[in-house]
């Protein structure tokens, strides 16, 4: 009996060690090696060529444009996503289950298909595009188009991180606030908002990080004008087509570093806050 227990303990230790090794190997192959290769390629020619590539007029403008429009789309998502999450959790209405399931559509839809969808919907030959053109409104091949594309592809992030936190709030707390004479806005600010704030921050940062890397939809609807509507991901693609892998790696390194910093900040801010998604 004692020997059987010992063998079981040994077997458990071997199993845990095997699983741990497989997971570490998996992370090394799929994350550490590819990320490390980008850093090695970006600095392969030294610091001066790297800095020259990053601070080149078109490269720098593409980076700044990407960050600026990513911030704009993230602010929109933080506001609209929080409202939608609140409605989905707190209200019951016809078609709610359909709307809730469609929130994840941007996750399953290829981004190039999303770009083609906007081209079809807002293009000059579509009824909506013709009507908007008569009003003097142009939603394609400009920075507005980029924001629209980014908002679409990052749509679920804030909603899906805020929803679980809203579901954890005891409705009795809100009812008590109403009983004491507080209005809906005051109750939301004092009871609901503090509880969902970590989710808003985490979802917004994930949306921002995703916006930095978007390519498929943006490449179709932005016009890709250098210095005006060319985002960093499109610039990177252009550099690879122009046989400049070092330049592409340098800009990729900037975006990669920003994404890693964002994920680290999310981990720090949400540590101890519980599971957000």
TrEMBL record:
Membrane topology: Multi-pass membrane protein
Chief localisation class: membrane
UniProt-recorded name of the protein: Sulfate transport system permease protein CysT
TM region positions: 23-42, 63-89, 109-132, 139-159, 185-208, 249-269
Tree of life domain: Bacteria
Native source organism of the sequence: Paenibacillus phytorum
Compartments (UniProt record): Membrane
Keywords: Membrane, Sulfate transport, Transmembrane, Transmembrane helix, Transport
Functional note: Part of the ABC transporter complex (TC 3.A.1.6.1) involved in sulfate/thiosulfate import.
Gene3D superfamilies, A to Z: MetI-like
Keyword Cell division attributed: no
Subunit structure: The complex is composed of two ATP-binding proteins (CysA), two transmembrane proteins (CysT and CysW) and a solute-binding protein (CysP).
Pfam family, one: BPD_transp_1
Domain ABC transmembrane type-1, chain residue ranges per copy: 63-266
Protein family per UniProt: Belongs to the binding-protein-dependent transport system permease family. CysTW subfamily.
